[in-house]
Amino acid sequence: MISMSELKKLKVFYHPLSVVANIQKVAGEKYFFMEKPRALFKALQKEGLNFEHHTYKPFTWKDFELCHEPGYVEAVRTGTPIELAESCAIPWSEELVAAIPYATASIHAAAAYAISTGEPTMSMSTGFHHAKYFMGGSLCPFNDLNIAAEKIHKESGLKGLILDCDYHIGNGTDDIISACNQAEYLHNLSMGYLFSRLYVMHNEYLLLLKEKLSKELKSGFPQYVIYKAAADVFERDPMARNGPLSLKEIAKRDEIVFGMIKEAGIPVAICLGGGYHSIETNILIHLNTFKACSNVYFNTGHTYNFSL
Description:
Blueprint: H1 4-7, E1 10-13, H2 23-27, H3 36-47, E2 51-54, H4 61-64, H5 70-78, H6 82-85, H7 94-117, E3 121-123, H8 144-156, E4 160-164, H9 171-179, E5 186-190, H10 192-197, H11 202-218, E6 224-228, H12 247-264, E7 268-271, H13 279-298
Parallel strand pairs: 1-2, 1-3, 3-7, 4-5, 4-6, 6-7
Helix pairs in contact: 3-13, 7-8, 11-12, 12-13
């Protein structure tokens, strides 16, 4: 029997081999954000937040072929041809190749657990939504979102929703949905399209998020949700060019999302999304996301931190 204290622990999926050691030395200083999974996991421990740590098995290189062209998969594995291997704009290295199977398997492990138990889970992966079928893209080698959905569909036949609240569009996710004929069992609600088309900000963004998510949930389509709770929507993020939300509004975004998904009775797995302001800002935002999820599901009463 599961005790009440165990039920109130958010399940966190992190593997130490998912992060390249000394990534800034291996790839360059501008890749500091790739240290986020390890830094966030340490911050969760330091804050003394109530969570349960889960590791998981890495993907095989055959798993990547579920949603990527085999020639591209082989290029990443071997580094040849280098142009294709580095199409994600991250310098190829043996260290990166060793970490990729662990970094990409986290979302599937978290989502599968959420589906099997009904409990919310949190993956330390960023969700590589720019990776396309034939190539990587914009810091994303393989699309772990699509692969997770493909494996879940093969395992259980379930239909899923990717709620992508990154500042940038999930163009790779849409590309693979089309290339792999996933539309019958996977929807991608990418809020990034609203910036490129409507440029909504602040409360208008939150209202539109509620409208779009409500429509998806009421459709009866999704049987689970993967929520990409990105930090790059922060109004001071350098990659966002005037992002739509303040720190308080990002926490409100998370409360809205978790409240609506909980009310719908649908399992949810969280992943981290982008964030380029600083590692400290990223950690603050993602700790607040953890707190929002715990507050909504477990009534923990955590206080948010909005001080940079």
